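quick one
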Amino acid sequence: MGPMHRRDFRAPLELAAQTALSFLEDLPTRPVRAAQPARSILDAIDRPVPAVGSAPADVVRALAEVAARGLTAMPSGRFFGWVIGGGLPSAIAADWLVSAWDQNTGSHEGTPAAAVFEQVALRWVIELLGLPASSSGALTTGAQMANTVGLAAARNAALASVDWDVEDRGLIGAPAVRIIVGEERHDTVMRSLRLLGFGSGAAIVVPADGNGRMRAEALERELSTHRGPIVVCAQVGNVNTGGVDPVRTIARAVDARRRAGDFTWLHVDGAFGLWARASRTLSAVVEGVELADSWATDGHKWPNVPYDCGVAIVADRDAHRRSMAIHASYLPASSDPAVRNPFDWTPELSRRARGFALYAALAEMGREGVEALVDRTCAHARRFRDELGAMPGVTILNEVELNQVLVRFDAGDGGADAHTQRVVREVQREGTCYATGTTWRGLAAMRISVCNASTDEDDVARSIDAIARAHALR
Ligand SMILES: *Cc1c(COP(=O)(O)O)cnc(C)c1O
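structure w/ pyridoxal-5'-phosphate:
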């Protein structure tokens, strides 16, 4: 095989465009679940590496044919599994261009456009969420890494407060930093604590209420019990219930401790819930989040940016930069104070130009569109709550604060856990819509997460009917 030529691109890219369009256009009519399980896809392609190559379009055609059987309609308006957004048209198109442009998004010298679109997209997120304008940001793979970035900045500042440069000296022999998490925090926070050397088992766990919200009085007790630096991890939008920690009360307690001279940092995991800030009617639910020190959220959940796109925001720019900056003789330092080099703010060096798709999504929606998306999806969640909750044998387990609904099904045979799991499986199998299961406070439940920008009233009505039919099967 010789060198690749410019003319090699047209056939595979045109095929990709057609294939993508038929996937997207079929979403409203195809079953939401995948046609075949992973094992069948494995059997179809698990062969030794081919000895000789193939024409690019042939590779794409064969790949897309097999993959089609194993793709779930995750961007469908009737996909309610986990917490998964769709992809807005401009954001998907921008993301294609990102692949074609193939920019290594480390420095603005290397790629002026990618560095600047990222910088502006981050500023737009800070504006939309009403966070301090002087905050710094970073685009990451998801909220997992955004939590890691926020907590790395926290670690830097916490130890700097006791004259310990953690970037240089590490954690071995360092003064203790206490980490406080809520009982119902997301498990990615615990993985971030592991990655950062704090350990997940060392975290102090504060109890939560019935909707998964950290109990502020219990946190206040912990804050007054311990001396030395403390990092508090609060949550806005529990992955099961959508429950929002009482952030204003928490922030006040953090501030009081800080003013008494003890270093205290408040990190907020708001992977999806932070976007409620963009809604005038819902922002009261998440009030006080602007008082935190760092925030993690996702572009690929509620804002319907295609995977992957996470956002870390840190109020203390210097701590953020100290925790992430990289220096190497062959890498250019920023030569313009108005433009930053992404590699000084993120855990990666080489990385995808994620800023274009996020920029496109926010430009497509505007402030008004983001608000409408948040309001509409939360209204759909309330309709699920009201209509499913009115059916015999159905209990709504959570207080629907945002876009998440937890539903439990009882067939009257004393086996509500088993029946609920059956309903989840049957709904998935039947294919009209897709919801996933969970256990909430010891009870099996179906989770309905409404995040997709395309979900309309008809999608909700058809999904409620499909769920009711599954519940009626015995
Ligand atoms: C989804 C979620 C995460 C993890 O986000 P990823 O984008 O999957 O890394 C973290 N915290 C909360 C509250 C979430 O809902």
